Amino acid sequence: MEKRQELYTGKAKSVYTTDDPDLLVLHFRDDASAFDGKKKESLARKGKVNNIFNAFIMQRLEEAGIPTHFEKQLSDTESLVKKMEMIPVECVVRNIAAGGLVKRLGVEEGISLNPPTFELFLKNDEKGDPMINESLAETFGWATPEQLAEMKSLTFKVNHILKQLFAEGDMLLVDYKLEFGVFKGDVILGDEFSPDGCRLWDAHTREKLDKDRFRQGLGGVIEAYEEVARRIGIHID
């Protein structure tokens, strides 16, 4: 497998083509950003930690029957993934009130949500990833009804699997976002799953162990990511 030209560069990852038209190289950089790119910083080891973390999670999900774009980890900062046609809709599940939900509805941070909420957001940085619904997604051709149903089903299956995994490490999976794409006609999980795209709290102290440490200037961002990894059995040199 030969890595070739850069296809796309995002806030924290870059994507490269390969000599196989069905496969891409996903490169995790040390860049961190928040508030639609208004806050940016380079954090040493972030790319390595997120790449190894993501590889572990994706393999766990595959073992549990969740189809993903992940093929294999290539190095500390790169992984091989399937080339998908991305669906520009983010799926968000919230188990505990935090972040945008608290701001929008004025509810108390930390209350348990039963059943968990499910939300859709249009993946559009220029518009600030606005919240949408199934009707809008269908009308504007962002996703079909069948794709939306499959995305929702897979998102809740992921919730069941990962809530249990993080609970074994004495952590609460507060909320998270997932992105999906189509590969050879099937809807599969794409992008990444790391502390960059979810909220994780210590189950006893409710200490934040995720990207909120960067957003809120709490410090110890990568140390928190590494602590999460250690608790669920990920070894990072």
From TrEMBL:
Q: InterPro entries attached here?
A: SAICAR_synt/ADE2_N, SAICAR_synt_PurC, SAICAR_synth, SAICAR_synthetase, SAICAR_synthetase_CS
For this entry, list what GO says about its biological process.
Answer: 'de novo' IMP biosynthetic process; cobalamin biosynthetic process
Residues annotated as domain SAICAR synthetase/ADE2 N-terminal: 7-231
User: NADP: present as a keyword of the record?
Assistant: no
| Endpoints of the signal sequence | none
Which Pfam families does the protein's record reference? SAICAR_synt
Q: Name one GO molecular function term.
A: ATP binding
This enzyme's EC code(s): 6.3.2.6
Q: Which family does it belong to?
A: Belongs to the SAICAR synthetase family.
The EC class name is ligase
Pathway involvement? Purine metabolism; IMP biosynthesis via de novo pathway; 5-amino-1-(5-phospho-D-ribosyl)imidazole-4-carboxamide from 5-amino-1-(5-phospho-D-ribosyl)imidazole-4-carboxylate: step 1/2
Q: Which organism is it from?
A: Vreelandella andesensis
Q: Does NAD appear among the keywords?
A: no
Query: Which keywords appear in this protein's UniProt record, sorted alphabetically?
Result: ATP-binding, Ligase, Nucleotide-binding, Purine biosynthesis
Q: What is this protein called?
A: Phosphoribosylaminoimidazole-succinocarboxamide synthase
Q: Which HAMAP family match?
A: SAICAR_synth
Q: Name one GO cellular component term.
A: cytosol
